Amino acid sequence: MRLKSGLSMRFAAATVTENKMGRVMTKWAKQSAADLGRGIGAGQIDPVALTQHFLDAIQSHPMADRIYARVTPDRALAEANAASERAILGRRLSPLDGVPVSWKDLFDTAGVETEAGSALLKGRMPVSDAAVLKTASAMGLVCLGKTHMSELAFSGLGLNPVTATSPCVNDLEAVAGGSSSGAATSVAFGLAAAAVGSDTGGSVRIPSAWNDLVGLKTTSGRLSLQGVVPLAAKFDTVGPLCRTVEDAAMMLAALEGRAGPDLRGAYGLKGRRFGALQTIVMEDLSPEVAAAYDESLARLRAAGAEIVPIEVPELARSIADAGVLYTSEAWATWGVEIAAQPDLMFAPIRERFEAGQATKASDYVRAWQDLEKLRAIWATATASLDAVLCPTAPNLPPKTDKLMEQGQYYVTANLLTLRNTRVGNLTGGCGITLPTGVPSCGLLLTAGPMQEDRLLRLAKAVETALA
Questions:
Q1: How far apart are CA 374 and CA 157, in angstroms?
Q2: Which residue of 2, 290, 326, 439 has the smallest Cβ count within 10 Å?
Q3: CB under 8 Å to 275, separation ≥6 — which residues?
Q4: The one catalytic residue among 94, 102, 104, 220
Q5: For the chain, what percent of residues have pLDDT higher than 70?
Q6: Which whole number is the average pLDDT over 352-364?
Q7: Cβ atoms within 10 A of the Cβ of 63, count?
């Protein structure tokens, strides 16, 4: 291992043979961000060597150009060098100081293009970092680069023939889920320790589920959207995609510039009460998803949890109205640019935007009034529950070729994919998806607004039960 000049004997003692180093680096690719951070803190991992490992892995990976839109090696190594010096001096900024992560290509990066997966924004060069990136950098996180995504974040599938379509880690011929497709696959393929994405209707949770990761959707307004390319700002949220619940907790803390919740004291599941949502979310499940969900509930019950079925009939109307709410705001945000150069967009995504231009103001206002009523009903219906459960996605990742060849199939698959996750966005809460052990099948836990810390402690116990 080549060591940076000036490193203390603490890191020099970690020098190993070339063969052993190869094994160490292979381990790094699959280790949790929290474990990597602990290794740095213990003097067992040099942030520079760790960052160089990920940069080398990106450079040599055969699908890296379908995962990363841009890599930022100069920034990454400069940040890693600073993290290394802090570690030597015992002045680390956070538990993840020196850990390399990726960023979805809608977070502004100073002097580096941020194009949000769209040819409409080709060459767009921000002059400053997004607020959450500034905060994360101030906590010592290392920025590896920007990851591919659905165009302007308006698809849950991750199909993007304009820039690149990231492959699902479980099926290279299938899409990875969107819109944070590259974010998820950067972690799943071992090309980042963790990732930061955005979620407007499921864009963190869907790719996390399909790539067997943990994905946290935060409450709208909890994390700053300053410097984040918008889709529908009333629903847009920022969230991490990670290997473990602990990573998600640490990443949330880093994005907020604070100490994270202490998961060491995470309570078990005995006496915990979950609502198994029945309205809409259990329809049209693939057999694999249904079996994984049933097995997950069985494991939670075996761990002592009480699971009760719940119905919220009013949810059906809000799901139906979601198109009015999302497309209207999305068209208001991007309509001028799309109308000026419509041919630059993948037609199914452009048409989804265009659906918002015909909405009457009265219909939009009524949809929001109905949604506010639903949120009050939902809060009452779930008040006695620790969280609401459902399958994260009702389907498995569709094949890329089939999505490209069959236009209506794309529309149907996209709406089905986002159906369950959208419940959390519409009801205004936070949510987390966990791997079930069945490839591309996630378990979704949804809680109320600003309950992320409590939800993360609960999710840690669920993670243990599902392991």
A1: 27
A2: 2
A3: 307, 308, 309, 310, 381, 382, 385, 387, 388, 389
A4: 104
A5: 94
A6: 96
A7: 15
| Cα dihedral 201/204/205/210 (nearest 10) | 120
User: Is 179 in the active site?
Assistant: yes
Q: Which residue has the tokens 């071992």?
A: 190
> In sequence order, which residues have a C-beta less than 8 Å from that of residue 116 and are 6 or more positions away?
105, 106, 149, 151, 152, 153, 229
Q: Label each residue of the chain as H, E or C.
A: CCCCCCCCHHHHCCCCCHHHHHHHHHHHHHCCHHHHHHHHHCCCCCHHHHHHHHHHHHHHCCCHHHCEEEECHHHHHHHHHHHHHHHHHCCCCCCCCCCEEEEECCECECCECCCCCCHHHCCCCCCCCCHHHHHHHHCCCEEEEEECCCHHHCCCCCCCCCCCCCEECCEEEEECCCCCHHHHHHHHCCCCCEEEEEECCCCCHHHHHHCCCEEEECCCCCCCCCCECCCCCCCCEEEEEECCHHHHHHHHHHHHCCCCCCHHHCCCCCCCEEEEECCCCCCCCCHHHHHHHHHHHHHHHHCCCEEEEECCCCHHHHHHHHHHHHHHHHHHHHHHHHHHCHHHCCHHHHHHHHHHHHCCHHHHHHHHHHHHHHHHHHHHHCCCCCEEEEECCCCCCCEHHHHHHCHHHHHHHHHHHHHHHHHHHHHCCEEEEEECCCCCCEEEEEECCCCHHHHHHHHHHHHHHHC
Q: Of the residues 203, 208, 296, 328, which is catalytic?
A: 203
Tell me if the pTM is above 0.70: yes
Based on the residue annotation, tell me whether 181 is a catalytic residue of this protein: no
pLDDT at residue 10 in the model: 39
pLDDT in tens, 154-196: 999 999 999 999 999 999 999 999 999 999 999 999 999 999 9
Q: Measured between alpha carbons, how far is 149 from 153 in angstroms, rounded to an integer? A: 7
Average pLDDT over the chain, rounded to an integer: 94
- Active-site annotation holder among 32, 179, 198, 208: 179
Contact 193, 99 (CB under 8 A): yes
203 catalytic per annotation = yes
In the chain, what are the domains? 9-265 (3.90.1300.10), 273-466 (3.90.1300.10)
Confidence of residue 13 (pLDDT cuts 50, 70, 90): very low
